[in-house]
Design a protein that fits this description.
Strand content: 15-25%
Distance between the termini: 22 Å
Shape: flat
Largest sheet: 2 strands, parallel
Strand order of the largest sheet: 1-2
């Protein structure tokens, strides 16, 4: 349930930003949306779990995803730079 609530909130916010950037003509911004897929060991109340080990796991997953995405951008595998707010969905 928490995943659905957070996902819906994110989609609404991104849609508002896209509408705002569509009005700016040549403004260019890329939003790389990365799916957090490292959730197999997390519990149902994960939104309230701020234990040190859980936070470190999430940071490590984010760093690893960031490195993979940076490599894809450098290799030219991710298209960015078009006018407006460009939302690119990526698997971490």
């Amino acid at each position: 349930m928490q995943d659905l609530i957070f996902a819906a909130q994110s989609r609404r916010t991104i849609a508002r930003w896209q509408a705002a950037y569509d009005q700016h003509g040549e403004s260019r911004l890329a939003l790389l949306r990365v799916a957090y897929t490292e959730q197999d060991d997390e519990v149902a109340g994960k939104a309230l779990d701020f234990s040190g080990s859980t936070i470190e796991q999430r940071w490590a997953a984010g760093r690893a995803a960031g490195r993979r995405i940076a490599a894809r951008i450098q290799a030219g595998a991710v298209a960015i730079g078009a006018p407006g707010l460009n939302v690119v969905d990526l698997e971490g």
